[in-house]
Design goal:
mainly alpha, two-stranded antiparallel sheet, transport, membrane, disordered N terminus, amino-acid transport, Amino acid permease 7, globular, about 450 residues, AA_transpt_TM
């Protein structure tokens, strides 16, 4: 009887896919969503609002929040296939695409996802160097006065960041370090909150709200980069939510709350920053030196950015490393250069197993992102291109098409027409934003 009881318990401890039972609730899910979407892009929101003005800025933010919710709503029903409640789990976003849309779409999806991750590595390299430079300038201004030149380049800091990433990229199982995600989330909340607080304090000090209702149009891409976190829906459901109640229903409720909270936070960051500086709002609220004092707080905020991005670079690029590792192992199963590990003993450290293939290609990978970052060191424009490239295909097209297949939506029905119109409108917006962002990079490069 005791044996049967233990077997029964062991079965209860597993989900229907044979993995350890998930225990997450709606509130756990909300925490994961918020932590996954708040990043360095929030520092550009004040500039984005300044480009769009008091009407266009908040309206665009709310618009993309609605788009994000719709996308997450559609994806919630694609976590299991062929039925959204009783079907087999899709462990990743790409798995959902493969099951619903086939291999050809999966390759396109994978290419776009990996391109997005690669671009994020470039953006993180640029942002880190700008934040380090801001720390140096902040200390200089504090000592020499606000009119001192305090000129520092960014290339050296990018190279240092790249060297650190070469070392970090060789650490085994880096993606499994749960504490790293916790630290990254804490750092992002720190610098975001500091930026919000300083903006609010400056508005109070100014005793008036700056800005006007007019603006440019390029900033929508920076806002999209911040708001679109819906493609993480499958991963969050896979890693977090328990089976009952149905994951898709819980995810939809969590999406409403998390998108609402995140949008409110972003609105505060963008609007208070714009209200503080008006048309002179810097591109990066923590590095553009709208704030000079307290210098130690600005230093701390930028240090949080650096720590966040130092680990974040690896978190975002580990999926690419894993894909390359698997491809080489499957392609050359008997090749020593690909498969052999060499044990190296370092003082005061445990033995390290070095793989020559990983050493070579991961080093070249980091070098490539560093070189591109040095060539195009433009924070807002890089965010814009990343947002525009991936917004429509990953956050709109694939979720809509998968939803059609999953829910068996017939052509020319009311729901089909509405979702197709929704997809086309987002495509048009994304195309204009991409053109504007590319033009911005070219203008910055040759001005």
């Amino acid at each position: 009887m005791a044996t049967d009881h233990s077997l029964e318990l062991s079965k209860e401890a597993l989900d229907d896919d044979g993995r350890k039972a998930r225990t997450g609730t709606m509130w756990t899910c909300i925490a994961y969503v918020i932590a996954s979407v708040i990043g360095s892009g929030v520092l550009a929101l004040a500039w984005s609002t300044a480009q769009l003005g008091w009407i266009g800025g908040p309206a665009t933010m709310v618009g993309f929040a609605i788009v994000t919710y719709i996308s997450a709503h559609l994806l919630s029903d694609c976590y299991r296939s062929p039925h959204p409640v009783t079907g087999k789990r899709n462990q990743t976003y790409m798995d959902a695409v493969r099951v619903n849309l086939g291999e050809e779409h999966t390759w396109i999806c994978g290419l776009l996802q990996y391109l997005s991750l690669y671009g994020t590595g470039i953006a993180y390299t640029v942002t880190t160097s700008i934040s380090i430079r801001a720390i140096m300038r902040s200390n200089c201004y504090h000592k020499e006065g606000h009119n001192a030149p305090c000129a520092y380049g960014t290339d050296v800091y990018m190279i240092v960041f790249g060297c650190l990433q070469v070392v970090l990229s060789q650490i085994p199982d880096f993606h499994d370090m749960e504490w790293l995600s916790i630290v990254a989330a804490a750092m992002s909340f720190c610098y975001s909150s500091i930026g919000l607080g300083l903006g609010f304090a400056k508005v109070i000090g100014n005793k008036r709200i700056k800005g006007n209702i007019e603006g440019a149009t390029m900033a929508t891409t920076a806002q999209k980069f911040c708001l679109i976190g819906s493609i993480k829906t499958c991963e969050i459901q896979k890693d977090t939510l328990k089976s009952k109640p149905a994951e898709n229903k819980v995810m939809k409720k969590a999406s409403v709350i998390s998108v609402s909270l995140t949008t409110f936070f972003y609105m505060c960051c963008g609007c208070f920053g714009y209200a503080a500086f008006g048309d002179q709002t810097p591109g990066n609220i923590m590095t553009g030196f709208g704030f000079y004092e307290p210098y130690w707080l600005i230093d701390f905020a930028n240090a949080c950015v650096v720590l966040h991005l130092l680990g974040g670079y690896q978190v975002f690029n580990q999926p690419i490393f894993g894909f390359i590792d698997r491809w080489f192992v499957n392609k050359y199963p008997n090749n020593g250069f690909v498969n052999d590990f060499h044990t190296i003993k370092l003082p005061l450290l445990p033995p390290y197993r070095l793989n020559l293939l990983r050493l070579c290609y991961r080093t070249l990978y980091v070098v490539s992102t560093t070189v591109i970052a040095i060539t195009f060191p433009y924070f807002n424009q890089v965010l814009g291109v990343l947002g525009a490239l991936n917004f429509w295909p990953l956050a709109i097209y694939f979720p809509v098409e998968m939803y059609f297949v999953q829910m068996k939506i017939q052509h020319w029905t009311k729901k089909w027409l509405l979702l197709q119109a929704f997809s086309m409108i987002c495509l048009i917006i994304s195309t204009f934003a991409l053109v504007g962002s590319v033009e911005g990079i070219i203008s910055e490069k040759f001005k």
